[in-house]
């Protein structure tokens, strides 16, 4: 860029924010290396006592019964800046903020979901520069940052040389399965192949809501306790290796021929927010059901059978709830189908899954098996997840920020923004 | 949202071969249109059955899903419910103590643009329909008065802008009707012009792309393994498709982002042919039995009894 030489000294510290719909992952990074990353609930919440929590204040909340949330990020895109500004102020800019910084001396790396609406991108650029006045700014789709992680080490290959500057991975296929949706993004040298990005509208929210519905229909009305249902989902759900067999195991049988529930069936002890702040899962005990009415035995139990695996199954078979999209493995193949066949072997051999859903047990196994079944037989299929799939995108951004030179070619400075305006910035970041 | 969705879809009624078009945005006068009757119309045969059994089994759409319009509407309603943030409508206003600058640094004067953004209460659905309307408008106008690009805007028939009136879950069925299907997975190289939305007006943006000078995928650093006597054995030879050329990769990387609706993953042709799995509405096991009254699925007698308690007493089911 011609303007680079005239730009002032690049800010020494960079704030990296992976602004997810459920949590935002934020922390500083500089040439000296990444600092600590905080996972902050990206929401404003109100509990039964009408007390409002902002962002990380939520950890002070003791009673999650009937709690309601307002989330500024909707479907993965930052929509409501009023609420987001409140959270950012609380986390970064106020005097007592946990990660305090002065934006005019700080650079910003901010993620967005792929295929964002241009108007939302422009809004974002304007607020970052005109309201917060960050010194420099790089906005990119979240998947892109993952290219700066050590992908080969994730596949248990040789780790990269820490002495060398961080460069993006040559080629990889990134699956980001978060709260709002699941996206498939092929990346070449840290640049997305835009025409091949595919989105599956199944994410953590849909699964939690689905589990809520199942539990509400079959056991207790949980519709006002989605926070709790999310905890149940995280504790109990798994991706089935053999859907049909698991289904048989959890069936109660016909009227004449009752079956004993298998080991898949578990009990989840609900929290009462007094003596038991957190719920937990334990083996199913058929005798506990009768104790429910006993006054001394104040223990509420949800019994989870096929709910444990039919809920994550939605990512692989969205048609189970009538959603007219193909599963994630098919979306990977759809994404490849618009790319030259010469890229397929490399993309299929370097599939990385990030996002909270990657933590569901056996997710990676099942995904690899499903893609294997669809991919050309000659191609090697490797699917892996980083050590912490939730933080992975942030870690990539933090790694990018250690390479100040690469970052400054990608970012836009405040001065450039003032000179050229937001339309120029939008073009710069590859929007339309 | 659903309401809108259903209205937007043209409701078509069949009456003696005359189809009444009740479009949501049609002229207020009752409109009748004669449409050519091509071949056997399955919905006509369904309304004039020769036998009751055949009517029950008749499948208006050739695909495997045997849902009625009522069930379709129910599915859509449930999907919309699953998409919601919470079961009730809530509004949590920003705490008032933050309105004055108590205890926080000020970022200077709020510019009008930012004030507008901060005050906007638009939801994502609002923004999306704005965008759709705008792009429909842009494609409707022959040439905008704004800068005539030096490079002619390549607009292939494939780049349809999404229909403004149809939002939500149904859009994907209609979109890309004239795009050549990309279902054949082993296609070589798709020409970028088929995929590309019109190139950006300003050619400047292509020069912005970083690292244009470095080769995108270099094979320089890779040392080939030592040769083996059986390397040329045709039975052992592995065939690796050649890497695309530099120019092809450049072209591929230069494609601008597609829109939100275009990026939505499809329901592949192959998956459409597969039967949809049915589950028991009560316990979640396979839905092996259909309720005679509502067509809902249950697994066995226990669940059927439970289901029918509800089904037979519910009003309007």
TrEMBL record, chain A:
Signal peptide: none annotated. Keywords: Activator, Chromatin regulator, Cytoplasm, Nucleus, Transcription, Transcription regulation. The keyword Cytoplasm applies. GO terms for biological process: chromatin organization. GO terms for cellular component: cytoplasm; nucleus. Coiled coil: none annotated. InterPro entries: Actin, ATPase_NBD. It comes from the Eukaryota. Its main location: cytoplasm. It is found in: Cytoplasm; Nucleus. PANTHER family: ACTIN. Belongs to the actin family. ARP6 subfamily. This is Actin-related protein 6-like protein.
TrEMBL record, chain B:
Residues 33-71, 142-234 are annotated as: Disordered. GO terms for molecular function: zinc ion binding. Coiled coil: none annotated. Residues 39-50, 190-209 have a biased composition (Polar residues). GO terms for cellular component: nucleus. Residues 277-304 form the HIT-type domain. Keywords: Metal-binding, Zinc, Zinc-finger. It comes from the Eukaryota. One of its GO terms (biological process) is chromatin remodeling. Pfam families: zf-HIT. Residues 151-162 have a biased composition (Low complexity). This is HIT-type domain-containing protein. It comes from Coleophoma crateriformis.
């Amino acid at each position: 860029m011609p303007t680079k030489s005239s730009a002032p000294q690049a800010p020494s510290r960079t704030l990296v924010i992976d602004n997810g719909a459920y949590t935002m992952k934020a922390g500083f990074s500089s040439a000296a290396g990444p600092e600590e990353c905080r996972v902050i609930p990206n929401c404003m919440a109100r509990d039964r006592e009408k007390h409002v929590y902002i962002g990380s204040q939520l950890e002070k909340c003791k009673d999650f019964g009937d709690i309601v949330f307002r989330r500024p990020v909707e479907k993965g895109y930052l929509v409501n800046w009023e609420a987001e500004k409140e959270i950012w102020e609380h986390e970064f800019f106020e005097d007592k903020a946990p990660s305090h910084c002065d934006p005019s001396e700080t650079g910003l790396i901010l993620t967005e979901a792929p295929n964002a609406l241009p108007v939302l991108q422009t809004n974002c650029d304007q607020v970052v520069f005109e309201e917060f006045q960050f010194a420099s700014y790089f906005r990119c789709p979240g998947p892109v940052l993952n290219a700066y992680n050590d992908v080969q080490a994730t596949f248990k290959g040789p780790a990269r040389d820490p002495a060398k500057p961080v460069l993006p991975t040559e080629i990889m296929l990134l699956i980001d399965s978060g709260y709002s949706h699941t996206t498939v993004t092929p990346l070449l040298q840290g640049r997305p192949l835009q025409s091949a990005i595919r989105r599956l509208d199944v994410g953590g929210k849909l699964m939690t809501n689905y589990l809520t519905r199942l539990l509400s229909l079959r056991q207790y009305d949980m519709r006002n306790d989605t926070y709790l249902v999310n905890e149940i989902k995280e504790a109990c759900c798994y991706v089935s290796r053999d859907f049909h067999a698991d289904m048989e195991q959890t069936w109660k049988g016909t009227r004449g021929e009752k079956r004993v529930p298998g080991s898949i069936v578990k009990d989840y002890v609900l929290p009462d927010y007094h003596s038991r702040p957190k719920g937990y899962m334990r083996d199913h005990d058929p005798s506990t059901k009768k104790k429910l009415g006993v006054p001394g035995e104040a223990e509420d139990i949800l019994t989870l059978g096929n709910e444990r695996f039919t809920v994550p199954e939605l990512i692989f078979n969205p048609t189970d709830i009538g959603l007219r999209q193909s599963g994630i493995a098919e979306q990977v193949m759809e994404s490849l189908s618009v790319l030259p066949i010469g890229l397929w072997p490399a993309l299929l051999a370097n599939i990385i899954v990030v996002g909270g859903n990657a933590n569901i047990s056996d997710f990676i196994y099942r995904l690899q098996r499903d893609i294997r079944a669809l991919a050309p037989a000659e191609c090697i299929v490797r699917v892996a997840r980083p050590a912490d799939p939730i933080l992975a995108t942030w870690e990539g951004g933090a790694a990018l920020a250690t390479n100040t030179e690469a970052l400054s070619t990608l970012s836009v400075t405040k001065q450039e923004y003032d000179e050229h305006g937001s339309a120029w910035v939008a073009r710069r970041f590859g929007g339309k | 949202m659903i309401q809108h969705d259903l209205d937007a879809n043209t409701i078509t009624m069949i009456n003696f071969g005359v189809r009444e078009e009740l479009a949501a945005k049609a002229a207020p006068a009752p409109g009748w249109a004669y449409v050519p009757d091509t071949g056997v119309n399955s919905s006509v045969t369904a309304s004039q059955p020769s036998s009751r059994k055949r009517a029950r089994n008749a499948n208006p759409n050739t695909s495997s899903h045997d849902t009625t319009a009522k069930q379709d509407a129910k599915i859509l309603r449930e999907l919309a419910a699953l998409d919601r943030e919470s079961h009730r409508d809530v509004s949590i206003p920003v705490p008032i103590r933050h309105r004055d600058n108590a205890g926080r640094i000020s970022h200077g004067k709020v510019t009008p643009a930012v004030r507008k953004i901060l005050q906007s209460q638009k939801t994502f659905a609002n923004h999306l329909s704005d965008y759709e309307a705008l792009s429909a408008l842009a494609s409707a106008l022959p040439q905008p008065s704004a800068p005539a690009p030096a490079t002619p805007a390549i607009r292939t028939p494939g780049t349809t802008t999404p229909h403004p009136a149809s939002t939500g879950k149904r859009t994907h069925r209609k979109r890309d009707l004239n795009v050549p299907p990309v279902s054949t997975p082993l296609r070589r190289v798709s020409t970028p012009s088929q995929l590309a939305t019109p190139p950006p007006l300003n050619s400047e943006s292509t020069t912005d792309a970083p690292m244009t000078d470095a080769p995108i995928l270099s094979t320089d650093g890779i040392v080939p393994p030592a040769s083996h006597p059986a390397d040329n054995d045709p039975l052992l030879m592995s065939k690796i498709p050649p890497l695309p050329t530099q120019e092809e990769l450049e072209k591929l990387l230069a494609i601008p982002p597609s829109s939100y609706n275009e990026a939505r993953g499809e329901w592949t042709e192959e998956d459409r042919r597969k039967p949809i799995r049915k589950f028991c509405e009560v316990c979640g096991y396979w839905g092996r039995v259909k309720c005679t009254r509502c067509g809902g699925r249950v697994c066995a007698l226990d669940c059927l009894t439970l289901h029918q308690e509800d089904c037979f007493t519910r009003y309007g089911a």
